[in-house]
Structures are given as structure tokens and as C-alpha cells.
Amino acid sequence: MKRLEKVLVVLILLGAIGSLLRIDYSNYIFLVGCTVISMLYFFFSFALFNDVKIRNITKPGSFKSIGRVIGSIGLGIALSIVIIGIQFKFFVLVGSDNMLNIGSTFLTIIGIVATIILIARNRQQPDFYLRVFKRLVPALLIGVISYITPGEYIIDIRYSDNPKLAELIKQSLHEPYDKELFNKIQKEKEKENSK
């Protein structure tokens, strides 16, 4: 992994832990980390996975094969979808399960294809496939775990010190347009913030 990726992964982990512990501004750290790494994979996966430095992207001969570039772009898009799905799931937003389902499915397909190609080529170019699997496997595992984790469970963890607020928020998941319920949640949050 490149240094920027490692920094972003640490930011994401710190933000997630801080957010679950309800430390101020942790949500923002998690949000920025997920968004930036998702954009990095979406826009620069073809260079990142082929170990090409950004300044060498336009130089002829930087990329070894068009197939690897296309595979890297597909992997970058799938990783980006999974990361944004994890982000949505963490904040219990609508659409998270769809993104996680689609992204995890693509990651699984890409993993199977990469394994078949690696075996068919007698394990040639192991560095490229190592870079692919180092990103694919953790993202797939975290994506699947996020997919099977109910949003209510995340709310219970985040608001474990205020079960009344947790129940109101869980109720709002099933009744998103109830203004009275929204007002109750706001009042409960104000009470909590005034403590």
C-alpha cells in the first residue's frame, strides 16, 4: 500500500472508533477518510495497482498491458462502491445495502477472475496480483460484514449511553417522514448536549 492509502486507512479507523465512542468531529474524520480513499481508487486505480507514479502516467511504456489497466479500473470502481457503501452503512443511510451488495459482488467476480488468470499464467507477475489482493480481500470482508450488520445494531452501539434516543432513531428508520418523531429526536439530542 502506498503511504497515502495507509494514512487514509488510519484516519478511517480512528474516525470510526471515535464516532462509535461519540468523540467530537470523529464523524468528519471518518467521512473525509472514506471519501478521499474512494476517490483515489475511483480516479487513480489504473496507476496505483500497476505501480506507476502519478508523474509517469503520460509517459509511453509506463503500463505493461491494457488488460491490467482495464482490470485495475474495474477494481478501483468496485472498491470505491464498497467504501462508499460502508460509509453509508456506518451512518445508517438509505442505499447502503445496495451499494455493498453491488460492490461486493463485483469484488468477488474480480477476485475469481484474478485468481484464474494468476493460476493460468503459472503465477507470473505476482507483484501485480499481490497489490490487487491486498486491497480486494480486506475490502470484501469489511463490505460483507457491513452488509450483514443491521443498522439498528450500529445505532445501539453509538447510543448505548442513551437508549431512549437510540429507540427514537431506530423508529425513525421505519417512519422517515414523521415530523413529530423528528422533533422528539431533536429534543432528546438537545437534552443530551446540554449535559
Q: What is the gist of this entry?
A:
The protein has 195 residues and is an all-alpha fold.
Report on the structure:
The chain is mainly alpha-helical and 195 residues long. The chain has 8 helices and no strands. Helix 3 (66-90) packs antiparallel against helix 4, helix 3 packs parallel to helix 5 (126-148) and helix 6 runs antiparallel to helix 7. The radius of gyration is 20 Å and the shape is elongated.
List keywords for this structure.
single chain; 195 residues; mainly alpha
Share of residues in strands: under 5%
Low-confidence stretches: none
Round the mean pLDDT to the nearest integer and report it: 89
Q: What is the succession of H and E elements?
A: HHHHHHHH
Indicate the overall shape: elongated
Please, how many helices?
Answer: 8
> Sheet bearing the most strands, described?
none
Number of strands: 0
Overall structural class, as computed from helix and strand content, comes to mainly alpha
SSE blueprint and pairings:
Blueprint: H1 3-20, H2 26-48, H3 66-90, H4 96-120, H5 126-148, H6 151-158, H7 163-174, H8 179-194
